[in-house]
Amino acid sequence: MEEMVFDLRGRICPSTLLVAMKEMNDHRQQLQQGAVRLRLLLENRDATVTIPEMARNMGYQIEMRKEGQHYELVISAPA
User: Fold this and answer.
1) How many domains does the chain have?
2) Residue 46 pLDDT > 90
């Protein structure tokens, strides 16, 4: 499985949400097939709520953890 990393540190919502939505839409087929997963590096706390909520509404699985001063959010294929 390929993992695509997007460093969104330093950005605030709604910019982070828009980038995440664009990448999920651009890679929809690969995500749904489990061929790729997206790893987002975030600092903005609002993004740790809005992006997972949107991704879950689209049917994706979410994993999130705090890594030092930022968060790592992984979006992967539906369960």
Assistant:
1) 1
2) yes
Q: Residue 38: count other Cβ atoms within 10 Å of its Cβ.
A: 23
Give the domain extent around 36: 2-76
pLDDT of 60 above 90? yes
Provide the whole-model pTM: 0.93
How far, in Å, CA of 11 to CA of 36, rounded? Answer: 24
Three-state SS for 17-73 is: HHHHHHHHHHCHHHHHHCCEEEEEEECCCCHHHHHHHHHHHCCCEEEEEEECCEEEE
Can you give the CATH number for the domain in which 39 is found?
3.30.110.40
